[in-house]
Design a protein that fits this description.
This protein has 682 residues and is α+β, with helices and mostly antiparallel strands. It is 47% helix and 9% strand. The strands form seven sheets. A five-stranded mixed β-sheet has the order 1-3-2-4-5, sandwiched between helices. Strands 15, 16, 17 and 18 form a four-stranded antiparallel β-sheet that branches. A three-stranded antiparallel β-sheet has the order 8-9-14.
Amino acid sequence: MTNHLAASESLYLRKHAENPIDWWYWCDSALEIARREDKPIFLSIGYSSCHWCTVMEGEAFSDRAIADYLNHYFLPIKVDREERPDIDSIYMQALQMMVGQGGWPLNVFLTPDSLIPFYGGTYFPVQPRFNRPGFLQVLQSVRRYYDEEKEKLSKFTAEMLGALRQSAILPRAETNLAAPYLLATGIETNTAVIRVNPNNYGRPSFPMIPYSHLALQGSRFGDDFDDSLRQAAYQRGEDLALGGIYDHVGGGFHRYTVDSTWTVPHFEKMLYDNGQIVEYLANLWSAGDREAAFERGIKGTVNWLKREMTAPEGYFYAAQDADSFEKATDGEPEEGAFYVWSDLELRDYLSTEELGLLQANFTVTAEGNFEGRNVLQRRQGGELGEEIENMLDKLFIRRYGSSQAQLALFPPARDNQEAKTVSWPGRIPAVTDTKMIVAWNSLMISGLARAFAVFGEPLYWKMATQAAEFILKHQWLDGRFQRLNYQGQASVLAQSEDFAYFIKALLDLQTAKPQETGWLEAAIDLQGEFDRWFWAEDEGGYFNTASDHSLDLIVRERGYTDNATPSANGIAIANLLRLSRLTENLEYLDRAEKALQSFSTILEESPTACPSLFVALDHYRHGFCLLSRYLPTAVYRVDASLPSSTFGLICQGLCCLEPAENLEQLDQQIAGVMAGPSILLG
């Protein structure tokens, strides 16, 4: 027996299709039933590769007693946060207001008439444990409160709605965007977020790429900061490329590590992390940090992307689960089973010399570092050498059934049933969520475009342009840009991050090959659609959701905070500034200035919330108009109108230097621009 999720295209929603709970997806019909029957809405939000979402689906959501109570007293709705990040953002903020923290699965209870949350939590076990109440007990208490405490409920929901509305209103300010301290403070405080901190011992470690990008970008100001900015930026690259967060056998980066030593990952692989990390490592390399592990991390990630995450049509899949089955007869998948190595397995499969080589270069012990098994983490940087690479390829064969050279494509397991029934030549792989998300594809396109500009590898350009061309050809429906694609079918109206990230990707392609003007033309067209439906005319900045697609939201947010991904507004403002220099259209500059001004109080009062806004501010303050060098605020354009004797022309702000007649003169001008007025002096 299935519920309303059975026909969903979302892998996450389909995972719940056979629960005894009568799940609905988010739609007008479900909301109307809840209002008509006066049933509080139980809203549960997650995503397909979320470990604790999977745990709760197999426990509480499969329990008959819980399902019977939920079906009778509530209207249960499931939302895939990757489909509707706007809904997720609102209710995650509400949960954090209620309990002081958030996470997924995100479970909140809403009033049926106004959709205001009045109770919530994350993971609820079937029986009380981990200092958490049993889920049936929670449901009974919530329903009792809803029925018997109407006055308290009304007061609480009024306060909650007021708090959510207030949080969506940015304080007006007249901050001087050119004030030298503003950017300097933003760079310094955000770099502190990624510096090595002994007080973080035992805490999880996340890539935090928006913060790392700002640290690296700020480090070019030299004497204005001490060397700690560059050191922090380099250390983050080394942690990623050497740590257990990187899959040293198969390539690709896991989501985060559960410890502060970058050793044991939470094993899911998300496209958005990998795209950002590829771009970041390429930037580190081009800035002069030529650590061999950075280039290896990029190559391995692109090989993983091509082998396991690229659809025949050229776009990229969304994610791979953390959990997989050790045997087809197992009832539940195990976290990390596809990636970890037992001491016995290594001794059986490798020669004594090979095992010694592995132990000398990676943190491999008989006891293991993850539940008796080993996650590979490098002991030092530098080149690994042919002998070690051959040994790692033996482990690749053990995992995949073929060597890297022989395995061009590794088909995805699209669900648990497929994972358990296909005869895999090696281990049973984790499930791959094969949907196409424009925002995440865009981050990977940007990473590949930057890697191509730095290393000149044709494969990087080919993969980037194939994905971009697919989006340009297939992601419009009834004249509107769409966020998702399920097996050739575009769906779900695009949100601000889809517009902002894809415009950036198009501009990054234009930067990598300035002579190809089609990417810039496409970016200009898309920016027009973005401005029409998302621009906040009175306040400045961009709303998360289109103006004609916000009626089911209790507030309309203009997101500015960076999390695992950069804020849409931070990227969008930098895009406007790049467009203004590429097109000489000052309307883009006016819009960017208004948007920065609207967020200026946030820049002053909450700088660590918004590193991407500071990146945009850097573009505003220091942007100028070569490729493999690290010039983060530069844009590039081929101009046939320049005199034939001109080698290049540098423009900064609204004025240009004299035309350079050779590369040496151009380099001298660039050096002068980069060593221009200190950002700390006014």
